[in-house]
Amino acid sequence: MEGKWHQGILCLYNLHACALKRCMSIAVWMKYKDLLEGKTPRWLSPVEAKARKRPNMEAHWPKYWEIIERTGDNWKLQSQDKLKSKVRDWLHYAQIQEVFKMDKKVGFQVEKSKLETELLEPKTKVLSRMYNLLLKWNTQDEIVKSAMIKWAQDVGHNIMSEDWERLWNTGMKFTACNALKENIMKMVYRWYMTPVKLAKIYHLSDNKCWKCQEAEGTFFHLWWTCPKVKAFWEMIYNELKKVFRYTFPKKPEACLLGMVDRKVSKKDRTLFMYATTAARILIAKHWKTQDLPTLEEWQTQLMDYMELAEMTGRIRDLDEEIIEEDWKKFKDYLQKHYKLYEC
Fold first, then answer.
1. Residue 80 falls inside a structural domain
2. 283 partner at 20 to 30 Å CA-CA among 110, 223, 230, 248?
3. What average pLDDT score do residues 176-201 get?
4. Range of the domain at 175
5. What is the 3-state secondary structure (H, E, C) of the chain?
6. Total domain count for the chain?
């Protein structure tokens, strides 16, 4: 498959009698391409992106896997001397280098993707392969995949399978409390009823957000993009920066799903999970109202969770010093900023 991955446009050429072109519009492809290729694909050709197209021409442009090389964790374009059989002149090389710099920001796919191995490489029975692959995706863990796709659409980028696995395997083990784990599961599966969903079920005319009363009350709007909810998360984010005494990216997948950013120190991640879970549970308590939790409610909830953490430690036979270290920054924060906790 050859295509302009760049500048938000996909132009398909000579894809096994244009099978994919007939099945998929550019708009649909742009919506879902990140789910198929999380990073810049191996099969993409920056040479093609800068080439003139002629009708019925065969595509023999070198792909990324042929013209880039890896040094440690860094990718670089091969020298012009190495690529002299593949590029016309220095100007052509400079144009390719420009495209490479743009794609490098996204990163490069190291291994072959399913799209490449199951659809692009085979030369026969392409439509059958496409159908079987779609059928496999549709019937294998359908509910989980549906939720994962919706989350990727909401946050605006693909959430890698490694992040989901980390959440399942380790992310939810920060506590032994089932009520807290249940909240994460409800978020993953998008369990909470929304005005949009209720309007569809009961044929209601009003599907506006319960908080702002302006935009459609979708799941992601009520949890993240509603101006009132956004202000609440901004408050929590600012308080957590005071707690940790450093800054880190504010991402919906971290606050809503517990996929903690790597810029949050490893020793602070347990506290981060308790803090964001407390915020979500408080939002859920005010779910169908215009009210939002206060800072004092969040602090009180988190202080209650300190006791839960101690119980978790006893259940798991953890050293008391580990629990104390997990919560030391929060205790210091309460004492320094609000005089709420006596050490």
1. yes
2. 248
3. 94
4. 145-338
5. CECCCHHHCCCCECCCCCHHHHHCCHHHHHHHHHHHCCCECCCCCHHHHCCCCCCCCCCCCCCHHHHEEEECCEEEECCCCCCCCCCCCHHHHHHHHHHHHHHHHHCECCCCCHHHHHHHCCCCCHHHHHHHHHHHHHHCCHHHHHHHHHHHHHHCCCCCHHHHHHHHHCHHHHCCCHHHHHHHHHHHCCCCCCHHHHHHHHCCCCCECCCCCCCECCHHHHHHHCHHHHHHHHHHHHHHHHHHCCCCCCCHHHHHHCCCCCCCCHHHHHHHHHHHHHHHHHHHHCCCCCCCCCHHHHHHHHHHHHHHHHHHHHHCCCCHHHHHHHHHHHHHHHHHHHCCCCC
6. 2
Per-residue pLDDT reduced to its tens digit, 267-292: 999 999 999 999 999 999 999 999 99
User: Which tokens go with 120?
Assistant: 């692009």
343 assigned to some structural domain: no
CA distance 72 to 166: 25
pLDDT band with cut points at 50, 70 and 90 for residue 3: very low
CB 92 within 8 A of CB 50: yes
Quick one: 322 and 244 in the same domain?
yes
Give the gyration radius of the chain's Cα atoms: 25
Neighbours of 3 (CB within 10 A): 23
